[in-house]
Amino acid sequence: MNISNEIVKQQFVQREYGLAHPTYDSELDFYQLVSSGNVKALSGMLLAGEEDAEVLAARGILSEDKVRNRRYHEIVLVAMISRFCIEEGMEEMESYNLSDFYINKLDKAQTTQQVIEIHNQIIMDYAKRMRRVKKKTVISPHCVKAMDYVYDHLHERIDVREVAEFVGVERSYLSKLFHKEVGQTISDYIMEKKLQTARNMLLYSDFSCTEISQYLAFASGSYFAKCFKTKYGSTPNSYRRINYRKHWKEAKS
Fold first, then answer.
1. Of the candidates 112, 133, 154, which is a domain's last residue?
2. CA 137 to chain centre
3. How wide is the angle at C-alpha 164 spanned by C-alphas 89 and 131, nearest 5°?
4. Dihedral sign from CA coordinates of 37, 40, 44, 46
5. CB within 8 Å of 129: residues ≥ 6 apart
6. pLDDT value of residue 85
7. Strand, coil or helix: what is 139?
8. Which domain holds residue 192?
9. Which of 190, 216, 219 is CA-nearest to residue 202?
């Protein structure tokens, strides 16, 4: 059978029925949410079914059997998530063992609903574990809660007073406790997380530097560029030009 003809035929069917793979950037955005431990965003997506419609129900037909088709896609999903999480700090053995565990569960699933339930478990299990990875050096609940607030409000201008109010303690007390346990001030932590997010957006998305600066609520584009250069040694534009998707290109070569 001519493989090229089969691929053309499959593409025709997908166009006719409005089936399409998610965009490369949307997939990367999703995997970044999981590997960064963004439980809140992922919970909302799962509840609304957005991740299934936009990212994971990548409508490629891997099998004519509907359950097997969905199962194959989920195996790809867990394989990708496991690698992203390793790169973001999860122990290799833990990630691979978790991947094997869920692939075995998928292999035993007999219905589409069972596969979907495992799909949701995979996403939330990895995300919760990654959130713990990000917090593993933190001891007190106050600091954990402060970090949660920062993470959930990176797209806003965050004032230390607001963080203290959310935690329910005095600003001075939280500042001293945070510095003692995390090793940096709350303001420095906020800036670090904003810049890390900006770095990922430069590497894996097509948002402009101006859009990234605005999304992360920097006072101005020039201030964003100055802060970014201080941390990473180059301007956002230069960093993107040198590193954009570099890891993925090397992996393909």
1. 133
2. 21
3. 20
4. positive
5. 37, 85, 90, 94, 98
6. 92
7. coil
8. 141-250
9. 216
Both 120 and 25 in one domain: the answer is yes
Provide block-wise average pLDDT over 10 residues at a time, the chain (253 residues). 47 44 67 88 76 48 84 92 90 90 93 92 93 77 90 92 97 96 94 90 86 95 97 94 62 42
Residues 6 or more apart whose CB falls under 8 angstroms from that of 216 comprise 154, 155, 194, 197, 198, 224
Structural domains in the chain (count): 2
Whether 184 and 200 map to the same domain: the answer is yes
Contacts by 62-69 with C-beta closer than 8 Å and gap 24+? 66/112, 67/109, 67/110, 67/111, 67/112, 67/115
Residue 194 lies in a domain: yes
**Predicted pLDDT at 253:** 42
**3 in a domain, yes or no?**
no
Q: What is the 3-class SS of 2-56, one letter each residue?
A: CHHHHHHHHHHHHHHCCCCCCCHHHHHHHHHHHHCCCHHHHHHHHHHCHHHHHHH
pTM (global) more than 0.85: no
How many residues belong to the chain? 253
Name the region of 158 (left: φ>0; alpha: ψ -120 to 50; beta: rest).
beta
